[in-house]
Specification:
- By secondary structure, the chain is an alpha/beta fold.
- It is built from 9 helices and 8 strands.
- The protein has a 6-stranded mixed β-sheet with strand order 3-5-4-6-8-7, sandwiched between helices.
- Helix 1 (about 20-30) packs parallel to helix 4 (about 125-135) and helix 2 runs antiparallel to helix 5 (about 165-180).
- The chain is globular, with a radius of gyration of 18 Å.
- About 45% of the residues are buried.
- The site of uracil (URA) has 12 residues, from helix 4.
């Protein structure tokens, strides 16, 4: 069984918003139940199925067991000392991720930039500040309830796109993170993350506005713009806001069902 989500193409309350004002966005989101704008959807409304399996159900909060904590620690040290691709030669350090190890939400970006490479934490530069504001607008915070990672753990020189061999070398680390975290919802920010996670070459515009499923647990995965792109193209912030509201409504439906049914089967 799945959850029905109506997806329609509303006029955005935020069209023309030049900066990402988290508070304004949060207020604009109140009562805005109809979720996503999607370039992939023709016509005024379509229905999508959110969850086909019980994969997203789990107890509200369980501290990581000793074994899980040890596996996280092992993963972190492997990433820090990784030499599986040439990027290790130019990086300051490998960047694993940030956030609680039992977060329900997981955000996945592309690769560390200069500031992330220096500080050892994803999304701490300008794009990171925008990402934090976007997440804040839907009640998420890297300190409490969202885990943030990248496809690549080492910085590509000049922030160029990752090469296929770099992605191939690094993806197993991300797979282990996802397996350990078992997020209820994944948000891929940007084309590189979306295409690599979904093994597709479809454009970001075609991937937005629908619920994809990832991996053996069929974890719901939603796609939106990369914050660095939004800094360059502020006119698209309103579309990103639609994506975030969509993700929030999907998450609420998933967790409501867990609350009432005990599972999602
Ligand atoms: N862009 C990304 O995709 N990831 C980061 O960590 C920083 C910028």
């Amino acid at each position: 069984m799945g959850v029905d989500v109506w997806v329609r193409r509303p006029g955005s309350p935020l069209a023309g918003v030049g900066t990402w004002d988290a508070q304004a966005l949060a207020q604009a989101g109140e009562g805005a139940q109809a979720p996503a704008i999607t370039e992939a959807v023709a016509g005024p409304a379509v229905m999508v199925r959110v969850a086909e399996t019980p994969g997203v159900a789990r107890a509200p909060f369980e501290p990581a067991t000793g074994d899980v904590a040890a596996r996280w620690d092992a993963l972190r040290s492997e990433v820090l000392s990784c030499t599986k691709c040439a990027l290790h030669q130019g990086r300051t350090q490998g960047v694993l991720g940030v956030g609680p190890r039992r977060a329900d939400w997981m955000v996945i970006g592309e690769a560390p930039g200069a500031e992330e490479d220096r500080r050892g934490e994803p999304f701490v530069g300008r794009a990171g500040h925008l990402l934090d504001a976007m997440l804040h607008a839907i009640g998420l915070n890297r300190g409490t309830n969202v885990y943030i990672a990248n496809v690549l753990k080492s910085r590509p020189p000049g922030n160029r796109d990752p090469k296929p061999e770099e992605v191939a070398a690094c993806l197993p680390y991300l797979m282990r993170q996802i397996e350990l975290l078992q997020p209820r919802l994944m948000l891929a920010v940007g084309r590189i993350a979306a295409q690599n996670l979904l093994s597709t070459d479809l454009s970001l515009g075609r991937l937005r506005g629908k619920v994809h499923h990832f991996g053996e647990l069929n974890t719901p995965l939603i796609v939106t713009y990369h914050p660095a792109y939004l800094l360059r193209t502020p006119a698209d912030k309103s579309k990103a806001w639609e994506d975030l509201k969509f993700a929030r409504s999907v998450f609420r439906q998933l967790t409501d069902r867990v609350g009432t049914d005990g599972d999602l089967s």
